[in-house]
């Protein structure tokens, strides 16, 4: 399955990695690794995760308190719309296309 990312994802990931690297050397890289693994899981089974709105699904990361919002664009393509901390407002980023 092809995966595309909303343009804001890159900035969000940079900020998260920077924050975790300040907390502990290398922790940001561990976050990024887990994010990439989660995306691979989503791509392999995109309908497994909870639907939170029409055509928008959410996948929780295991080690880090972040959630990934994504939607199926086509039968063979999904779009990652948001990576956000679980304590952020639930509607954060949902209006992204």
> Which class do the helix and strand fractions yield?
alpha+beta
Write down the secondary-structure element order. Answer: EHHEEEE
Using the alpha-carbon principal axes, give the shape: globular
The total beta strand count reads: 5
Contiguous low-pLDDT stretches (5 residues minimum) are none
Using the CA coordinates, give the radius of gyration: 13 Å
Number of helices: 2
- Mean pLDDT, to the nearest integer, reads 93
Give the name of the CATH architecture.
2-Layer Sandwich
User: What order do the strands of the largest sheet run in, or round the barrel if closed?
Assistant: 1-5-4-3-2
Secondary structure layout:
Blueprint: E1 2-5, H1 8-23, H2 27-44, E2 50-53, E3 56-60, E4 66-74, E5 77-85
Helix pairs in contact: 1-2
Structural write-up:
This protein has helices at residues 8-23, 27-44; strands at residues 2-5, 50-53, 56-60, 66-74, 77-85. Helix 1 (8-23) packs across helix 2. Helices cover 35% and strands 32% of the residues. It has a single domain, classed as RelE-like (YaeB-like fold), CATH 3.30.2310.20. The protein starts with a strand and ends in a 12-residue tail after the last strand. Strand 2 (50-53) and strand 3 (56-60) form a beta hairpin. It is built from 2 helices and 5 strands.
Write a compact overview of the structure shown:
By secondary structure, the chain is of the alpha+beta class.
